[in-house]
Amino acid sequence: MRVTGGIFKGRRLRTTPGLKARPTTDKIRQSIFNILMNDIDSRETLDLFAGSGALGIEALSRGAASAVFVESGHQQARAIKTNLKELDLKADVLEADYKAAARLLAESNIAFDIIFADPPYERYSPADVAETVLRYNLLRPGGLFIIEHKTGGMIPEGRLNLLKRRRFGQTEVSFYVCKRNQDMPEGDLSGDL
User: Fold this and answer.
1) Global pTM?
2) What residue segments make up the domains of the chain, in order of their start?
3) DSSP assignment, residue 92?
4) 66, 53, 44, 45: which is closest to 24 by C-alpha?
5) In the CATH hierarchy, which top-level class contains the domain 26-181?
6) Percentage of residues of the chain with pLDDT beyond 70
7) Cα(127)–Cα(24) distance, rounded to whole angstroms?
């Protein structure tokens, strides 16, 4: 697995052996970031179910201001730390279940401009993950929630509005924007999508 763009383009990322992690393929990752284009620059990002950290590291490579990685698997969390160290990147890695990490981030009043989520399809539905993100106010108004899921998974419209969907065989990537209040300043990340 390699970084597909930005200052670390072409650099290899370590992954853990076996089937515990199902990394986002280079093709899907490149498609996500082609859609985001310049919307990643200077943004604060969260990589949920991070695996090897490929999505968050790709965001940093392409100009994101920061990334926080959440991964419950010990070997995967170690792989993320190794990848960050080898690229000389500074970022927080939370080795915890995504709900526990969401509570911890909320207690620290931390919110993000872009959240990437690639949960195990058989364990978590897109709606469950989105509900946790919204309950703990992890996504700033106007921010993007990008989730990889089995084809056909949906998040009920509410605080999140579907912007785009891309299908890759049995996998879909859905882009949602968090609604903003009428009195909030402009700066919605969804303008160019």
Assistant:
1) 0.89
2) 26-181
3) E
4) 53
5) alpha beta
6) 90
7) 19
CA–CA distance, 103 with 106 (Å, rounded to integer):
5
Q: Who's near 110: CB < 8 A, 6+ residues apart?
A: 68, 138
Give the torsion sign (CA, 116, 106, 43, 54). negative
- The residue with tokens 């309950």 is 135
Q: Are 87 and 20 in contact (CB under 8 A)?
A: no
- Measured between alpha carbons, how far is 69 from 49 in angstroms, rounded to an integer? 8
Contacts of 103 (CB under 8 A, 6+ apart): 136
Listed in sequence order, the residues at least 6 apart from 183 whose beta carbon sits closer than 8 Å to its beta carbon are: none
Q: pLDDT tens digits, residue range 35-87?
A: 998 889 999 999 999 999 999 999 999 999 999 999 999 999 999 999 999 99
**Segments of the chain assigned E as strands:** 44-48, 66-70, 92-94, 112-117, 139-150, 160-168, 171-178
173 token code pair: 């990537």
One-letter amino acid of 32: I
H/E element, 126? helix 126-135
C-alpha to C-alpha distance for 139 and 6, rounded to whole angstroms: 24
Rounded to the nearest integer, the mean pLDDT of the chain is 89
Chain-centre distance for alpha carbon 4:
16
